[in-house]
């Protein structure tokens, strides 16, 4: 692992965390998390499908920046888990519905590019 890869992940992660925070301000807490997770999953699925060769062993800095850093920080489980827990304390049915819709949308937008362009 080179220093350039570590720095790329750090820069991408910082950008993803800021975008996740801003999405909550722009669209509200639950919608913002849904948007951030869906965009992060779509970005990750598209990049994995598009990237040439084996990107896990010897990933270029730009791939690490966009996948591990940006998409990873943008689509984190921690915010989703806390919001589902908070929603469940008020309305368990809404919490389950929100979780299923968010997971379904994230999985779908990540899977479509992999099926369409995947290796």
Uncertain parts = none
Beta-strand portion reads: under 5%
Give the C-alpha Rg: 15 Å
Shape: globular
How would you spell out the order of helices and strands? HHHHH
Counting DSSP E segments of at least 2 residues, the number of strands comes to 0
Largest sheet: none
Helical content band: over 70%
- State the secondary-structure class: mainly alpha
Q: What is the arithmetic mean of pLDDT?
A: 91
Total helices: the number is 5
Q: How would you classify the quaternary structure?
A: single chain
Determine the N-to-C terminus distance.
Answer: 25 Å
Quick summary:
It contains 5 helices and no strands.
Care to describe what's here?
It is a single chain. The protein has 119 residues and is mainly alpha-helical. It contains 5 helices and no strands. The model has no long low-confidence stretch (mean pLDDT 91).
Could you outline the blueprint of secondary structure elements for this entry?
Blueprint: H1 3-27, H2 29-50, H3 61-74, H4 77-88, H5 92-117
